[in-house]
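Extended Data, panel c. Modelled sequence:
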Amino acid sequence: MTDSRVALITGGGSGIGAAVARQLLEAGWRVTVTGRGEERLRGFAEELGNPEGLLTVVGNTAEYDDIRSAVDRTLKEFGRLDTVVANAGSATHDSVAEGDPAGWTDMVLTNVLGPAFLIRASVEALKESRGRIVLVGSVAGFVPTPGNLYGATKWAVTGLAENTRRQVTEWGIGVTLVAPGRVETPFWDDLGSLPPGHLLTADQIADSVVWAMRQPEGVDVNTVVVRPIGQPN
């Protein structure tokens, strides 16, 4: 167990992050999950039976000190760090021309600075393990949507993934951007209903994340776009 690989997942208490954590724990990994809600993290751990290989850390991905603390606690608890998954994100589901700016700052900080903070905080540990950075982006980071600021933040994540890869590849660190289409997760809760058409499950996206993480040393899977069949854009 002490030699098993270690992952840190932001926003890991629900949705895609939780699904990735479950799959990794089942495969024998040790996993740290972060999130803003202590109750949600506690419930997630209890649901899994409080496994020995799971560490939950309350923190805000948009605060560098919180992310730095999560990395430090992971290294102290598990002794290594092999993969980080920048999964935490939020959406205001409005437009730049007609939306409410009150929610935009938190969304931009979480979706754009959050992944950058995670990279900065973990890069030295990942140099040692020759590990991998996984950024959870979105199809919205490839296909423009009228007035959609959330989509603009995901375009930033798309750029961050490639910009980061070009720097860290010389240190043996892989970088993978996983860009989902529509997924049935709490992402849609503020809208009160799911969008029409077929949606992927969080487990199906987790399959892609974990597949990328399991690639052998020297293999760098860079971009994985996963849409449900029937989603045109």
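The mean pLDDT is 93. This feature is highlighted in the accompanying rendering.
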